[in-house]
Amino acid sequence: MLKPSQRREAMFYAKTSLFAAAVFLACFAYLKFLDIPGEVNKSVADTAIILMGLSMLISSICYYWNRFDWTIIYRKYLGLVGFAFGIAHLLLSWGAFASLFRATTWSSGAYMPALAGVVALGIFAIMAAVSNTFAASKLGGKAWRYILRTGYLAVIFVFLHVVLLKSARWVSWFTEGMKTLPSLSLLVSIFMVVVIVMRLLLWFSLWKAAKKIDQL
After folding, report:
1. For the chain, how far is it from start to end, CA to CA, in angstroms?
2. Which ranges constitute the DSSP H helices of 35-74?
3. From CA 43, how far away is CA 172, in angstroms rounded?
4. Do 160 and 114 form a contact (C-beta atoms < 8 A)?
5. pTM score
6. Would you identify the CATH topology of the domain 4-214?
7. Distance between CA 213 and CA 157 in Å, rounded?
8. What's the CA gap between 145 and 166, in Å, rounded?
9. d(CA 12, CA 136)
């Protein structure tokens, strides 16, 4: 028999998983419509980015728009379910990961996209490992929050991963007159920029608020 707290956790995981499934299906349908090959793996990757990005974007959204405060509880669950999708993407892209262990990959400079992705996933793994009350109590609130904020660095590495892989296609799409809908990778990259910009705005707002208090 589950305890009330465990039932609550299970409910949040279930809701987040349903949302994740909806995001995955939307990504898959979009890629199918554009007739992009490898749609399953790409949908998994984009779902991971969207979920983990939302888990970090929620803080900024709730700071500026109180009506969304009810979403703050989902930060942990979005991040962990998104991380699971990230692991699935790694497994589906195992050939690219394995290439990091070949000397020819490093000599040709072809390692950068895969390395950026692996570094990002490593940071997210650390965040996932400390996303619990036990880790928070052992590390202390300040250190715990600092570790979780490294997620923004991970977003930057994911952005580099996507740009290195897809930017040539974006340029071709633009120079050829944008005759189709934009690629999902471009839309997801714009979303990552929004996540980082919103966090920078939040830091600035918090800095201004603290400065104003010091002047009182």
Report:
1. 53
2. 39-64
3. 22
4. no
5. 0.91
6. Four Helix Bundle (Hemerythrin (Met), subunit A) (1.20.120)
7. 35
8. 33
9. 20
Residue 118's nearest CA partner among 159, 167, 157, 165 is 157
Tokens read off for 69: 């405060």
d(CA 49, CA 79): 10
Distance CA 43, CA 49 (A): 10
- Extract the tokens encoding 90: 């790694």
Query: Any idea which residue has 């740009």 for tokens?
Result: 163
Condensed to tens digits (0 to 9), the pLDDT of residues 90-142 reads 999 887 767 766 767 666 666 788 889 999 999 999 999 999 888 888 888 88
DSSP code string of 174-198: HHTT--SPPPHHHHHHHHHHHHHHH
- Hey, is 152 helix, strand or coil? helix
Helix (H) or strand (E) holding 35: none
Q: Which two tokens stand for residue 150?
A: 């490294």
Would you say 77 and 70 are in contact if contact means Cβ atoms under 8 Å apart?
no
CB neighbours of residue 122 within 10 Å: 12
